[in-house]
Amino acid sequence: MKLISFIIPSRNNLKYLKQAYESIRKNTLYPHEICIADDASTDGTMEQVLVWMKRDKNIKLHINKGPERLGHTILYDTLVNEYATHERIMIFHADMYLCPHADEEIDKYLEPGKVVSLTRIEPPLHPEGPEKIIEDFGIEPEEFKEKKLLKYVEEFRKGKNGRDITNGIFAPWAIYKEDFQEINGHDPLYAPQSKEDSDIFNRFKLQGYEFIQTWRGFV
Fold it and tell me: Which of 55, 119, 131, 165 counts the most CB atoms within 10 A of its CB?
């Protein structure tokens, strides 16, 4: 297993960030690096991450003291270029929950010149799409049905669902750091956050990178 640097900007999202952090630590067997950017939060994000860092040596923290937010577009690249120490990085949202075996699925398919996405399981908040699974295991952390989600994922992974991988790219996605830097990362034109995904995905495609979505690794 080649280790991954998880790249997680967050702004006033602490209750979700806690869940994201805990899921990475308890649902993986390897000491992956977690790079967090606190984007001028006022909800205690910085203080909580500093507490984690006292017991977890594999956390890196970037602090934007504000008062203005920088946005994900800028902070993804700051974390990748200035903090991530592993050759593999994963763009991860602060409100995601990493399911068991997801890192193993990334390890199975990720190579230079490829971008590997996990499959999202999400409640019916947004329109349905072929790239995700709509199942309601709760929206807020306090109503999250974790055991039911884990059972669902375990049964889905065991079943024969007609596909292991498809062609696609969606968050969360993993890539080699060198490949990310080869196309100069996100364009600050889209800061603080607007259409940056479409732009960088198009540039990945123009560069000839292969897109893989695994249907055995989930958030």
Answer: 119
Angle between helices 14-26 and 45-55 (to 10 degrees): 20
Whether the per-residue pLDDT at 191 is higher than 80: the answer is no
> Which amino acid type is present at position 180?
F
Q: Give the whole-angstrom CA distance, residue 122 versus residue 24.
A: 18
The reported pLDDT for the residue numbered 100 is 98
CA–CA gap between residue 80 and residue 66 (Å, rounded): 20
Say yes or no to pLDDT of 154 above 70. yes
Are 107 and 2 a contacting pair, CB within 8 Å?
Answer: yes
Q: Which tokens belong to 85? A: 């120490």
Of residues 143 and 161, the one with the higher pLDDT is 143
Question: What is the token pair recorded at 35?
Answer: 């790079």
Instruction: Give the pLDDT score at 11.
Output: 97
- Give the Cα separation of 152 and 160 in Å (integer): 14
Under a CB-based contact definition with an 8 Å cutoff, are residues 12 and 41 in contact? yes
Q: What is the pLDDT of residues 96-141, one digit of tens each?
A: 999 999 999 999 999 999 999 999 999 988 888 889 999 999 989 8
Q: Name the pairing type of β-strands 132-134 and 4-10.
A: unpaired
Fold of 4-218: Spore Coat Polysaccharide Biosynthesis Protein SpsA; Chain A (3.90.550)
CA–CA separation, 127 and 78 (whole Å): 32
pLDDT of residue 161: 66
